[in-house]
Specification:
The protein is 26% helix and 20% strand. By secondary structure, it is an alpha/beta fold. The structure holds S-adenosylmethionine.
């Protein structure tokens, strides 16, 4: 652990304040090591100054991570899970929120633990992707859970206008009522549903332009863009304890948030930091997205009139 006069020094750093209370968090700090050792030593974490946590932990599925051994005895994995969850919860400000990306096998334990910690579940979202592992003896897995919990449900960040998409009523049914509705949302728009899928939402594989060398668990940029835009403000401080290829960091920085990441592998951390410096490639791709799964039921009114 690289300590100097009692202060943990980041391994990679982009200068800039991390004072989110004044809306000034802009800097980036990346720490290499086990998040359970690093988080208690990071000043903003110690002082509970984090506005948003996004965590995509190792799933204990024997994945070939660069350095992390991804196969613990189940009890040890649960102890590990509760330890990092507690550190992240303690890092949050009163208005703060935590998102956890987790598959079926440990989802229930995390939900219960966060409830025991007196957080409130705001959404239990599902990230649906195609091309899950093929199987013959059970249904093919095609989802991961995206759990959204708030420390204080009545005092949380929520920026609906940042993440609206075109409603099915507008894109598929051409229902005129959606154009003059009075629900506070713009004409023809609504919030996304809690199952996330569509263009750019696939697993990052093959020749996907987002793909980073050496990572088979990289999340799509659109996922982090939705989470960060909806549940944090510019100048807020975002924390990711499992940095990986750096998806949370690259999107948070591009959206004007400060960022702290911890990562067990020094090589991953270095590449993630370079990615944060270079910037995302899909920012804004979800603007006015259409996610309807049915074809339009009739011709669009303008086309029908011709
Ligand atoms: C599922 S991946 C994260 C992927 C990331 N969300 C992305 O989009 O690239 C988990 C990462 O956590 C790292 N890791 C595993 N255990 C860790 C620990 N105890 N502390 C910090 N990092 C850890 C692994 O090296 C791996 O890079």
């Amino acid at each position: 652990m690289a300590k100097k006069s009692g202060t943990l020094k980041p391994t990679h750093e982009m200068k800039g304040s991390l004072r989110s209370e004044a809306g000034e968090a802009k800097g980036v700090r990346v720490y290499v090591g086990d998040c359970r050792d690093m988080l208690p030593e990071i000043p903003q974490v110690k002082r509970g100054e984090v506005d948003l946590v996004f965590a995509d932990p190792p799933f204990n599925w024997s994945r070939a991570y660069d350095e992390w051994h991804d196969k613990m005895p189940r009890e040890d994995y649960l102890d590990f899970t509760y330890a990092w969850l507690d550190l992240c919860v303690d890092a949050l400000r009163d208005h703060g929120a935590i998102w956890v990306n987790i598959p079926d096998d440990t989802c229930a334990e995390i939900v219960l633990h966060l409830k025991e910690r007196k957080l409130t579940m705001i959404n239990w979202c599902v990230w649906h992707y195609r091309f899950g592992q093929n199987t013959k003896t059970r249904f093919i897995n095609s989802k991961v859970h995206a759990l959204y919990f708030a420390k204080n449900a009545r005092n949380r960040r929520w920026n609906a206008e940042e993440v609206l998409e075109v409603s099915d009523r507008a894109s598929t049914y051409f229902d005129p009522r959606t154009m003059d509705k009075r629900d506070g949302m713009p004409a023809g728009k609504r919030l996304p549903m809690d199952v996330w899928y569509g263009e750019y939402w696939g697993r990052i594989q093959g020749n996907n332009k987002e793909r980073r060398h050496g990572h088979d668990n990289q999340l799509p940029e659109v996922y982090l863009e939705r989470v960060i835009r909806a549940t944090s403000n510019p100048g807020d401080l975002v924390l990711d304890p499992f940095l990986g290829s750096g998806t949370t960091g690259v999107v948070a920085h591009a959206l004007g948030r400060g960022f702290i990441g911890t990562e067990f592998s020094g090589a991953n951390a270095k590449r993630a930091f370079e990615r944060i410096e270079n910037g995302p490639i899909r920012l804004g791709a979800l603007k006015d997205a259409v996610t309807a799964i049915h074809k339009p039921r009739r011709k669009a009114p303008a086309a029908a009139a011709k």
